[in-house]
Amino acid sequence: xxxxxxxxxxxxxxxxxxxxxxxxVPGQASTRPVALVTGVGRRAGIGAAxxxxxxxxxxxxxxxxxxxxxGRMPWGTDSETAAQVSKKVEELGGRSHxxxxxxxxxxxxxxxxxxxxxxxxxxxxxxxxxxxSVDSGLLTTTVDSFDRHFAVxxxxxxxLIREFAQRFASPHGSxxxxxxxxxxxxxxxxxxxxxxxxxxxxxxxxxxxxQLGITANVIxxxxxxxxxxxxxxxDSVKRATPxxxxxxPVDCANLVxxxxxxxxxxxxGQLLHSDGGF
Length: 278
Prior knowledge:
Short-chain dehydrogenase, NAD(P)-bd_dom_sf, oxidoreductase, SDR_fam, 9 strands, alpha/beta, 7-stranded parallel β-sheet, 278 residues
């Protein structure tokens, strides 16, 4: 495994000036609650859809991304995503703050919360949409890959949840933790196993953090069209889905927005399948 490096990269929080140009307003007060969304590396991804949907439903949004991971993936790095998502959040009335952060680094979760807190304020909802996902089977997975999957998908998620709970200062019953999972198993051992660990961590949080007024749920969004499927695989998934289509990032984003709302406050400790019946 390469030596992990932590990167904290701050973007603007803006409001229009008299000239119509944006200006930086660090830590500007807001009546909107603050959500932190991890894994917003691609505009076509679920994380970006969640960030934008939360902004549309009244949230300020801090979010993270990690370009070296995208650079290892077939879709490659998109250097414009962070700025585009920030702009969209602000167009929807929210404040934004983005952080490029390596979740393999043990110090990163604390640094993320420090950065978001300093600019936007205390976090009321934590959405874990980041992942390490490299296909390999039981016999072909390397120890380095196995460890990296668990470091990012399980350990970092636990540390983020712990940091969130230790700092939680919002009204009792308003705290939210949402984690995105997968039921992948065959030829996807380290990803599926580490996501299984994430499920257990999140469901433990639902019990242990209830006294703080925080709910925690896991969402399995099913096969979602974020550009990773081949045409053949996409057709196969459509045929296997009762509704005859692929999931879209906004499908998961709509569920996250509901669970983060007061109306979603009675749902706790659940693994929710939002997959069209796949």
